[in-house]
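I am still getting used to backbone structure tokens and would like to learn alongside you. Label the sequence line and the structure token line clearly, so we can match residues to local backbone shapes. Would you write everything just below, so we can both look at the same thing?
***
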Amino acid sequence: MENPTEQPTVLVMDDDEDVRFIAAIMLKRIGFNVDFAENGKDAVVMYQSKLHSGSRYHAVILDLNVPGGMGGEEAVKLLKEIDPAVAAYVSCGNPFDPAMDDPASHGFRGAIAKPFLPEHLQVLLGQ
């Protein structure tokens, strides 16, 4: 469903505006469009909306912990119900979190530690 003639789009869910801003700069530099959500609930709605429009996200990067909102682990479960093939990656500032150590057992394809580095995003997203 992703149009090969267009730049792929990545959905970044993070409650920190600075993280979203930096992620946008890095992702755009390596060839991606970027959409943002501040919490898991918004990310799920956006993902579902994109699928209903006949398109899809290249990947979704989900912040593990969102104070007062839905975090990445809960969001990835809902995303997998909508689309079992979702390319969801966990993001966290704590590299020792169990989801970072073993992302697959928590429903993710992979993990990326904060702060993001462009070369890590390139490897993670296959660009």
